[in-house]
Amino acid sequence: MIVATWPALPSRSLQFQLVAVLMIMSGVVLMVCLGRPVPGIGHVIPPKYLFMPYTWTCIAIAISFDGGWQRVPEKWRLVYTKLCLLCILIAWGSHGVASGLGSRGMPFFETTRGGEIREHQLEFAAMQELRATIFAPLDDASDGLLQIVDINGNTLARQYPALRFPWGYEPQLSYMVDVLSDKPSHYQFLYATELVFPNPTVSRNLYKNVSPEFLNLIQTSEEANRLYSLPAILDSQARPATPSEIQDRPTGLTIIDAVESQQQDTSEWLIRSDGRAKIVLRYPEWKSDERFQLQMVIHSPQPTTDAEDTAVMLSFRSALFSGETKHRLPPPDDAGLLQIIDLQQLPSFSLSEKIEFLTIDLPHSGAYRVEHLSVPVDQSQ
């Protein structure tokens, strides 16, 4: 439209005005693109960055319309005006339809205004649920310092996808305390391992260090209990096994629902599974702050990925948590190295004073070889 109407602009000054408008538009767009780069087409640009480009675009369209109006014969100017208005109405109407589809979660329309509003509504609903589950009861329970357990951002985002930032950042619970609580300065967040910003206070004895009000909430509120036992993806370290790491054998190792199981020696088991086999570990007086480093070598009958339906899963039961939640173990190491998994990265494990038993699910059909399976006493205590 701009190219077609350029010769018809009535004066050189109007042509210069159009050039100036286009240069301003280009500058604003370039500034937004450089200052706020987007990771992809699905990224929503905040409206505050779009106001100026939209404004100058409308001015450019108005100047171009005027040039076209000057070029069209007088008897066709009314038709020309109506056609332009019709095109504008179609464009606005299409935007409204796309926005409506976006508000209903239709694919491809997430970046419309309706899609953005829907995203904010889901985010607000998730935050309101967190507020009602954790912070509202604690705000009412105490006016003093409250020490509570943080929740890993990845775990939280799997339960509440709306809390995940468009560029992939997954905020942990402590990151959002300013909007979740009326008394954000009254909270100190604890976690058994280091997390990303904001880094909570590291405590390896969570059940001893959390505030009584928080522990009472976990015991009495089913929603809070479920929140702190959300399924998680566990991290691990791999290294060759040493004699000192394989001496501590579980006294109550049981294999259930297996087609066949054989103990090859004191530290190796051959388990034939039809997809339902489980390994159950028990220790007398198992305290979570003494035995928390799960170590094992698992040779799977099939290539194991970290997909939900093929991953080796772990669960445990304590007096505080029922043991129904299954957590995803990392894929077995192909080199047969000893996997070391810190179970205290699970808030539910760290908050439990004593562990009744731990269960490992073997999902594939075929023969597993399990070596050096134990949860030894931590010698650094």
Distance between the termini: 76 Å
Q: State the CATH class of the largest domain.
A: Mainly Beta
Could you give a short account of the major beta sheet? 6 strands, antiparallel
Could you tell me the radius of gyration in angstroms?
30 Å
The outline comes out as elongated
Give the number of helices.
Answer: 11
Order of helices and strands: HHHHHEHHEEHHHEEEEEEEEEHEE
Residues in β-strands, percent: 15-25%
Portion in helices: 25-40%
Structurally, the number of domains stands at 3
Neighbour order of strands in the largest sheet: 4-12-9-14-7-6
Mean pLDDT figure: 80
- The CATH topology name of the largest domain reads Jelly Rolls
Number of strands: 14
Class computed from helices, strands and strand pairing? alpha+beta
CATH architecture heading of the largest domain: Sandwich
Could you list the spans in which at least 5 consecutive residues all have pLDDT below 50?
A: none
Protein name: Putative membrane protein
Keywords: Membrane, Transmembrane, Transmembrane helix
3D structure, described in words:
By secondary structure, this protein is α+β, with helices and mostly antiparallel strands. The protein has three domains: 102 residues; 101 residues, no CATH class; 138 residues, Jelly Rolls, CATH 2.60.120. Helices cover 37% and strands 19% of the residues. It contains eleven helices and 14 strands. The strands form three sheets. It has a six-stranded antiparallel β-sheet with strand order 4-12-9-14-7-6, with no helix packed on it. Helix 3 packs antiparallel against helix 4 and helix 4 packs parallel to helix 5. Keywords: Membrane, Transmembrane, Transmembrane helix. This is Putative membrane protein.
